[in-house]
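Please, structure for the following, as tokens.
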Amino acid sequence: MSGEVERLSTGVPDFDRLIAGGIPRGFLVAGTGEPGTGKTIFCIHFIAQGVKESDVCIYVTTEESRESIVRQAAQFGIDFKTPLEKRKMVIIDALMGLEDRWSLKSLEIEELLDKVIEAKKTLGYGRARLVIDSLSAFWLDRPAMARRYSYFVKKVLSKWDFTILAVSQYAITTSDAFGFGVEHIADGIIRFRRFVRNGILRRYVIVEKMRQTPHSLTMHEITALDGKGLVILGPARERREDHVLPARVMSKLVKAKEEKEKILPGRELPENE
């Protein structure tokens, strides 16, 4: 019996190299981060690669319309219009509340699962890829349910041969998740980040967790290019502030140490006789 792990390419070759060739088949991987960090572009690559490899491909969008995802893919040189017309993939629109077959009328987890399974049956059986962008939208008004919903999604869809990329949105003001859930049950966590360096917005990605995988532990800088999509620029350069406390904190610590080391009046040590 072979112990080799079957892996699915993410569609970004340089990123695949960070995770030993791709995401293990059947995994649920969380793509986490603040808005504008590259999560949706990464999801588009993942599905586009699935179309190329003749996988069953389903994309659930909760924060953009179906048309917006198609246009964004085209911006990066990826054609979603043709496979949609040829029924090689399905985009489930959970935003617009349309009456067509592949739209959700509400952000209820049961409706999501029913629609995803219906799409899988329609497209055919076999290896499948699913993007849920974002899964956290289904518990925004009930964050305490995040873990239960995430576990429910993983348990139900694991029987349908899905490899899942589930987006978890983080608040831009606090960098906190809208309810902790998917990260705890996920087989992998890909963290997208953003910082302003010298007045320029820079984006980064790091693999925080990937079971059964000797993955990179280094943060890499990324960018998005028209006609190409997500590009790995290389390992992030080490900065002094990555491992040194901020000056304000250091100043407080030094003052506290000085106060602690002062000999209080009247408590001087006596000279040796």
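The longest helix spans residues 109-123. The domain at 7-239 is CATH 3.40.50.300 (Rossmann fold).
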